[in-house]
Amino acid sequence: MDWQVTHHVNYWGTTKLAYPDVPKEHPRFAKCMVVGNLVFVSGCIGRDPASDAPAPESAAEQVNIALDLARGALETAGATMGNIIKTYFLITDLDDYGEVRKTETEYYEAHAPMLVEQPPAATLMVVPGLARPEFKLEYEVIAVIDREAPDWTVTYYPE
Question: 3-state SS of the chain?
């Protein structure tokens, strides 16, 4: 196979790191990579790395920021939220689960309504901590361009 790999290098080389306090000699990562028609988006946290604002205390606010970052990464790669086929949500407190899911659903209703009716495969993991103590969650996605291509057969289970 002749796979074309495209790095979307928001945090690569001389551009701003995702975590400004990380020394330059530490590994950096791509905000997303495209391999063939697959888009892999790195984990998005509930804090905008382009601003100096601290992460909000509300899990709902962090979800909206993380989803905005994921949406921006997808758009950089030529995809949309509607192209998502797999999500990974890492949360640090199971008590936030209801608020996280409610906010995620509201976000999908606004930006990718098809994900409400035909949700992607999903994984939720409760973890003891993330890169910084104030981060309540991290969101990562895999998307395919184009999820609804005319010659593809997409089956949702259960039907």
Answer: CCCCEEEECCCCCCCCCCCCCCCCCCCCCCCEEEECCEEEEEEEECCCCCCCCCCCCCHHHHHHHHHHHHHHHHHHCCCCHHHEEEEEEEECCHHHHHHHHHHHHHHHHHHCCHHHHCCCEEEEEECCCCCCCCCCEEEEEEEECCCCCCCCCCCCCCC
